[in-house]
Write a structure and sequence with these properties.
The protein is mainly beta. The protein has one domain: Lipocalin (Beta Barrel), CATH 2.40.128. It has one helix and nine strands, in the order αβββββββββ. Strands 1, 2, 3, 4, 5, 6, 7, 8 and 9 form a nine-stranded antiparallel sheet that branches. A hairpin with a 5-residue loop joins strand 8 and strand 9.
């Protein structure tokens, strides 16, 4: 029976392959011109909710900034997440892919790493839906271990608007 961590690993692998594939072929769209923008470009503000087994949910403000990656047909983005969630108060970068086209609405997905306040490098995967004014996405990951030698999973949701 597949475990949740196996699903996360598969998700991370698939998002990485999708990023490479879209970056290499432009996703079927025309190449990005210098200074070209997307409906995702700019800063989106909202909340990041983190859920951990046996613990109360923790909700905090978050900002997600999107910048079009060059030569990707406006479908790959370099992003920065600034979280003020007390469990994961970090600023991190990630790569996000927009499918099926560069036009809204669309699905987004990507991966990233962060410096955990618990002393390790955490990993996350995010997938969700994007419209011209709302992004609603999962934010699932693996943080430091609790001394047992097993890194602790968490699930989350990031909801932001422009």
């Amino acid at each position: 029976m597949p475990t949740r961590s196996m699903h996360r690993g598969l998700g991370l692998s698939l998002m990485g392959l999708a990023s490479i594939g879209l970056a290499n072929c432009g996703g079927g769209s025309t190449p990005t011109s210098p200074g070209e923008t997307s409906f995702l470009s700019g800063t989106w503000n909202g909340t990041l909710t983190i859920s951990r087994t046996g613990q109360p949910d923790i909700v905090g403000p978050a900002a997600w900034t999107f910048e079009v990656a060059p030569q990707t047909g406006r479908q790959n983005f370099n992003t920065t997440i600034r979280s003020q969630n007390t469990w994961i108060p970090v600023t991190t970068t990630s790569t996000i892919v927009l499918t099926p086209t560069a036009e809204p609405p669309g699905q987004i997905g990507g991966t990233g790493h962060y410096n955990s306040p618990r002393g390790c490098t955490g990993d996350f995967v995010t997938t969700g839906n994007a419209t011209v004014n709302t992004i609603d996405a999962t934010f699932d990951g693996i943080d430091c271990d609790d001394g047992s030698g097993v890194r602790l999973p968490f699930s989350g949701r990031i909801r932001v608007t422009k």
